[in-house]
Amino acid sequence: MFEKGVASSTQSHDGSNLRVLIVHARWNKEIVDGLVKGAHDTMVSKYNVKAENIVTKEVSGSYELPFAAKRLISNSQVQSVTNNDLLGGTTPEEDTERPFDAVICIGVLIKGSTMHFEYICDAVSQGLMRVGLDTGIPVIFGVLTCLTDDQALERAGMGKGSNKGHNHGEDWGAAAVEMALLK
Ligand code: RBF
Description:
Blueprint: E1 20-25, H1 29-47, E2 54-59, H2 65-87, E3 102-110, H3 116-135, E4 139-146, H4 149-154, H5 168-180
Parallel strand pairs: 1-2, 1-3, 3-4
């Protein structure tokens, strides 16, 4: 037997200087909310990310996540340059609008009776990878692609039976900090 899933990192990660963006979809909101909370609370309690340095934005569906991530990353970079110009240069600690160090995109896709699911899954996974590689800012793939409602609930730690499952949002929070510090 082996322990399924991601093992804890052998290195310690201090997220106290990081600024992280969470973008989430509103489809299947109850499950999405659980995943967002898992990511948020893990970053704060386990990695010392300051709650005020976690910005949360929402979009309609998962298909919108890559575009939103790209635009919000670009805006944070432009804003930061403008602020530095206006203020005559600020240190990262003083600049609350400094660029994001990592982005977590969260959505829950559940297969229906048409091909929509396959198209959205493909577009979103390709799109999020592209945003990360194009911008140089780590983008975490926090999108569940499930065949049933129960699969989605269990992967948010909200399973109906005795097995509540595991909240994958916690792993996404950890991955965001680890990737942000990979410099
Ligand atoms: N968005 C999700 O985040 N999860 C879904 O399970 C989901 N299923 C959809 C099923 C259909 C038939 C349609 C039309 C849209 C669905 N969307 C879903 C919304 C999609 O991500 C996007 O918001 C819309 O297609 C508008 O671009």
